[in-house]
Amino acid sequence: MSVCAAILALEPYQGGKPIGELQRELGLNNVVKLASNENPLPTNPKVIAAIEQAASEVGRYPDGNGFALKQALSQHLSVAPEMITLGNGSNDLLELIARAYICSSSDEVIFSEYAFVVYPLITQALGATAIITPAQNFGHNLTAMLLAISKNTKLIFIANPNNPTGTMLSDKELYEFLSKVTKRVIIVLDQAYIEYLGAAEKALEWLQEFDNLVITRTFSKAYGLAGLRVGYSICSVQIADYLNRIRQPFNVNNIAQSAAIAALKDGEFMRKSVAQNQSGLSQLAQGFDELGLEYIPSSANFIALKVTDAKGLYHQLLQRGFIVRLVEMPNYIRVSVGTKNENGLFLNALKLCL
User: Which of the two ends of the chain, N or C, has the fewest CB atoms closer than 10 A to its terminal CB?
Assistant: First the structure.
């Protein structure tokens, strides 16, 4: 049987190695995972209570339209519920957007040299043409992205804060960029880590001015719901309608919806997550400074660390029970922020490996 050539050329996405897998491979009892940018805090008790209550209804299909969660998001973000599309994680939304606007192999998708690995995967899987712009100080070079726009450009992906570098574009830079991009090109602003900034930002206001802007967000990071896979997009009512036409029915399960509603209501857990992350970033940065290591200052919940031999160090750390992430940047590993104790143990292990 034949399959699309674009699929044959794809390398499957590899997530961070699971803790159980490393325990089985090496017979380790204590493993610290700092690879997948997860929230290291214990699961929110209010979320657990919502999950337990929702569990009694697992024999029934979830609300396919996600009415209650959309209402909660609408109130939380001060946007119309018709502007919200729910997804099985924000990755689901990224793919839906691409499927809605990529129609042929000549269609072009622009993203940065160092950006979320899912962007090239989606582009290749749909048979479109990837236009990769060179990074600027490890982040997005918006000038290069503007110059890369052609008559075939359909989508531009921008992650802010960026993964895997942790770099951050200012509101001023982004607004000027939006103002210069032709309205026929869809701009996807991926804000998976936006909550970690702990401050108000302007992107939601821009939706009133730019009909070609789609914002994607997730409950997997600061909200601590990575295992439930629930994300959402905010955009014009017209684009939301297109996304909902191709969205799989019941793509967000009822337990995930209930948990997300509970998470939205608990501002105290979010404040703890943000404070813990800021403290963890400082702890890791101080440790790297003491070891004389270079790193990219981060606005997310991870740090990209420069090393001499990334693959060698990665495997040395695995042997000691620490899982970090190899990234698509030469001589860099990405380290997620853990608890204070996990960060300290990692820094001690790192020192022994160097």
Answer: N
